[in-house]
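Hi support team,

I submitted a single chain yesterday and got back a structure, but I'm not sure I'm reading the token output correctly. Could someone confirm the output below corresponds to the sequence I sent? I've pasted both exactly as they appear in my results page.

Thanks,
R.
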Amino acid sequence: MMGRQIGDQASLFYEFRLEDRIPKDHLLRRINVFMTPVLGGVREQLKLHYSEIGRPSIDPELMIRMLIVGYCYGLRSERKLTQEVELHLAYRWFCRLDLDDKVPHHSTFSENRLHRFRESDIFRHIFERVVAACMAAGLVKGEGFAVDASVMEANASRYHGKAPEEIEWAEPERQTHAVKEYLAGLKAETEPNPDRNPPKVISPSDPCSAWTAKANKRVQFGYGLNYLIDIEHAIIVDVEPTPARTYDEVEATKTMIDRTERCFALKPKRLAADTAYGTGRFLGWLVGRRIAPHIPVRDASERDDGTFSRSDFRWDRRRGVYICPNDKVLHTTGTVHDSKMLRYRASKFDCDVCALKMQCCPKGPSRQIPRDLHEHARDVARRLMRTKAFLKSRDERKRVEMRFAHLKTHHGFERMRLRGLSGARDEFHLAAIVQNLKTLALRILGPPPDRQPTSFA
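Hi R., thanks for writing in. Yes, this is the structure output for that exact sequence:
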């Protein structure tokens, strides 16, 4: 016989305890084990950013807990987040809200993000405390790091890009936080960087983002999400936002490594990365810091037209010259070209009478060999590429890529909501906090009973 629901929800009173309604293996219950100590100093740190008079404000710990719920479950819209916290029992329990407690209005988040949270750098503070908790739990070995960047689409239309000189920044509609941050950055530049080409197209609404087509994606404005992870358990030890340009991403790695050593006394013995980081300048910086670069060298010196490549010329380190296949010497004047290389030239008189000229420089009077100022570091990286340790690092480097895939697939983080580098910094810190908390819960408390262990959740 077909059953029929006969209840009419007419009860006036219910016996209800929120704590009993949340499953013991629920993700938020497992994360909450670590949240209480992590958020212990939040109110004290934010105290200076609140007035001593006036009405009591919304509890900042409540707003931070709600934001963590949002980034954990892909609810990055504050309006949608407040609606879900209003209805979801587990969200209420995690945010320490009872059934009849009022959920903060969504506009409260924007006001606090732009002022108190950003001025106090509270998200950075929480991120560092989460990393410290991972270290205390033995999840950070500190022996090997990996670095990579992923493009996140900016909150800016790809159809409205303009040349910088075409934009009137004084117009009223341009007076936004993102534009003010961009103009302040321009004023802070003492002189233009010769290694960074000025952008040809920028977004009027988010000028800090970069016009990019990286990772075989459509051309768009985007930011680079830079992760520095400890290879052992893929704990994110630092995070940094940049415009989606390779040069800025490589430079950000230096900032992250220095900051990690300063904050946590962690300095890796080796760094794994892809070819984009294999520039002479960056490899030279790593070797100078005594960090083994497990990075493929960016090298375009091999020729495929049958003529001699640079590898056919022998480098005499003691004399500082190249020796050609016919035992002639190539010297340099010492002039630095393109701020990164020297040019070694053979004598025209030697090349004119050389029997190997057609194999060496058939279209020129004499052979020239460019040499990077940091060629010694490039040679170090080339030697490491032939070791078993390098092959191991190459496989382990995929763990940072898995972090990006997990963030986009399970957290729905593919497009920015906030604008400007400060907005990107807030979003990236919250994303890294949630990912580290989930890893901490998985590694320390173990996987839920109904779930098989997976890597780097």
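A quick pointer for reading it: The chain has a mean pLDDT of 88. Let us know if anything else looks off.

Best,
Support desk
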